[in-house]
């Protein structure tokens, strides 16, 4: 879904999702299909793995626990008939990762569709609370929230000690695609003291030519491992571009900046270490 829906779950209203839908606590036999890789992992981390009956091919963590969970296609090419055959009671989706029309079709036969849209690392706390309240695992959710607060606090401490930098973060090649500041990735980097460019964009994931005048403000280029897996050749290609010549270019683990849910706990800690290492280097 590339649109924006009103409202986000919050600790004050833990049963309300990003679409503004208030969910009842799950009862009876629960069957979950998750179309969001990071939230599939969160489902398992909350002790709900036995209730997970379907996932996408991109849902790879935790690998062993997911080995026997059926795949239902990708995040943007869901095999809707496969989902229907699994008879889920709950469907987990995300505004950025899943297509609105697919979700609307599945909502005709799935009783409960949980819509998510985290935009900041702090929004992970609301995600934990939402899942905890719906699926009756509040204790596990509170444990994750405490760990997430520690990781985010450590990241903020590192950022406070270092000078802020303006960075170009790319997510795709052919065409080159960057990020706008209203994305989860940009907000996560901002927490580390990295301010993404461009400052303003017409799309949340703008297509770039990499000859834009504002590239002169870039102090560092970050190339993640996903969704496009950048490699050494991409580093070399960017280093040869006129407007980016001489800028440091770094290959990084994309899960640090783009995965929310339970993986963000380790991701924020890893991002703090990376920020410190690159500042020294």
Describe this structure in words.
The protein has helices spanning 37-45, 63-66, 80-85, 100-106, 123-135, 138-161, 184-191, 232-239, 255-258, 263-280; strands at residues 32-34, 52-55, 90-94, 112-116, 165-169, 176-177, 194-197, 207-208, 220-224, 249-252. It is built from ten helices and ten strands. The model is unreliable at 1-7 (pLDDT under 50). With 281 residues, the chain is α/β, with parallel strands linked by helices. The longest helix has 24 residues, at 138-161. The chain is globular. β1 (32-34), α1 and β2 (52-55) form a beta-alpha-beta unit. The strands form three sheets. The protein has a four-stranded parallel β-sheet with strand order 2-1-3-4, with helices on one face. The protein has a four-stranded parallel β-sheet with strand order 7-5-9-10. α5 packs antiparallel against α6 (138-161) and α6 (138-161) runs parallel beside α10 (263-280).
Could you tell me how far the N terminus lies from the C terminus, measured between alpha carbons in angstroms?
Answer: 39 Å
Biggest β-sheet description: 4 strands, parallel
Catalogue the unreliable spans.
1-7
What's the shape? globular
**H and E string:** EHEHHEHEHHEEHEEEHEHH
pLDDT averaged over residues: 95
